Amino acid sequence: MTEKFHRWHSPNTNTDLEMLVFGDRGYPVIVFPTTKGRYYQNKDFGLIGSVKWFVDNGLVKIYCPDTIDDRSWYNKSIHPADRAKTYAGYDRMLVNELIPWAMHETGVGNVALAGCSFGGYHAANFAFKHPEKVRHLFTMGGAFDIKMFTDGYYDDNIFYNNPVDFLPGSNHHDLWQMNIVLGTSDYDICKGYNIQLSNILKQKNIKHWLDIRPFANHDWPIWREMFPHYLSTIK
User: Fold this and answer.
1) Whether residue 74 has pLDDT greater than 90
2) What is the pLDDT at residue 235?
3) Between 106 and which of 28, 76, 146, 160 could a Cys-Cys bridge form, CB atoms 3.0 to 4.6 Å apart?
4) CA nearest neighbour of 179 among 102, 118, 111
5) Whole-number Å distance between alpha carbons of 168 and 37
6) Residues 6+ apart with CB under 8 A from 173
């Protein structure tokens, strides 16, 4: 499995970001790390290895970028308004830098997004905000309500980066074209968030799969089982 390291300065986040890219062709898949995880986390915990067959056969090309969790939602040293503004810069980075990069390299006009735990938040937030750019969404043990990080403060940046708030009022045509999988499990601490998001999608008649696995916890072993299954749904 080919692996390349990239480092660049992002004008949208005003930070240097790092990323691993696996494969040399195929459908572009952006995979976010869990809470405060780095670009190498999904490799180190075996998630990328679980889909080696898809990469080696040229079916997917996987991009694993850094996030800025420690500067945004998890940064208790700044006001919640500034946490949200900082994260809005990360969203702009995805729109203007990473997603166009992945589309250009692969020659595909849209992407798949995936992530485990808080990585599932990053994936779902972007997919539902920018559905014209995303054809597939795979979350594993995701949590989707960002208000737990805002200390009771609320503004437009929080609203538009909180899927359970903005999604009910969105009528973007491409939401109904997306292949959406919400993966969770019986003993997942985030199971309730997945059921909540599934109910919002049901109310909007948006087709999706709420995949609740039996006898599993919020942890990497079940996510490594889920991810290759979900990638197999890309057509």
Assistant:
1) yes
2) 87
3) 28
4) 111
5) 29
6) none
